[in-house]
Amino acid sequence: FASTSFKTAYMVRHYPAEYFTAILNNQPMGFYPARIICNEARRRGIDILPPDINLSDALFTVEKGAIRVGLNQVKGMSSAALESIIAARASNPFTSLEDFMLRTACSCDIIENLIKCGAFDTISFDRHYLLAVLLHGGAVRVTRALATLTAPPCNTPPCSAKYRAWEYEILGIEIGEHRMAAWRDEFKKKGICSSREVKSCKNGSMIKVGGFLLHPHRPPTRSGRITVFFSLEDEYGITDITMFEDIYMKYGHLIFGPQYGSLIVSGRLQRRGHGINIIAQKLERG
Fold this sequence. Notes:
Blueprint: H1 2-14, H2 16-24, H3 34-43, E1 48-49, E2 61-63, E3 66-68, H4 79-89, H5 97-103, H6 108-116, H7 127-135, H8 142-148, H9 161-171, H10 184-189, E4 192-193, H11 195-198, E5 206-217, E6 227-233, E7 238-244, H12 245-256, E8 263-272, E9 275-285
Parallel strand pairs: 1-3, 4-5, 7-9
Antiparallel strand pairs: 2-3, 5-6, 5-8, 6-7, 8-9
Helix pairs in contact: 1-2, 2-3, 6-7
């Protein structure tokens, strides 16, 4: 383990983009899903670039120090569709949605997902316009569809919560800003700490922390009583939480039930050496 740790530290220090790209291309592995790995890479100054119909390979790749999302990450992408994209652009890059539809074997569902996750942004930033074109029909009618749309596409980069939601739904990862950033101002008003602020809190203090649920697990214990361990992840990092049986009986459904939105935990901060843990006393939806 010492050798592996040294090699990992060396790669993260000297070749961070290559290291995280390799980890992403070997999923599933280890404890953390792709979105957590991407968020850690972003916290280390590495940009995560959206998939692109002209620039993305099948897998994640390094592009000028950033990580470009691969086309395989797009929900619903088939091997036949992927092969047709790569083969078609080998001679000439795609220049429009019409061009893409005529030269590939992608279904409308795949094209819709490509539009929503930003894979056409280098052609047009206006994803709603492209979706409207797609809605008019398949490749046979795309020219007529373009002619009937009177509103020109917008080529100004958007900053839309809707776009971020699409990207996460289709890719399973965040592109650009972390989803928790949208709640940060509201959380501050309510006295809810970020994972960064937790580090400066005193041992034994009562705090609130918010984030997205990560890896809840309930290992067997010698006493037979229930103990649940999980983490909350936000734009700054991860906070570890421990929940004992009495609290689990009240709030366990929030951990092991359907997940939507963020989770807020109220509890007592516990320090052990350099480690920080929150002993949960109350849970609620964010």
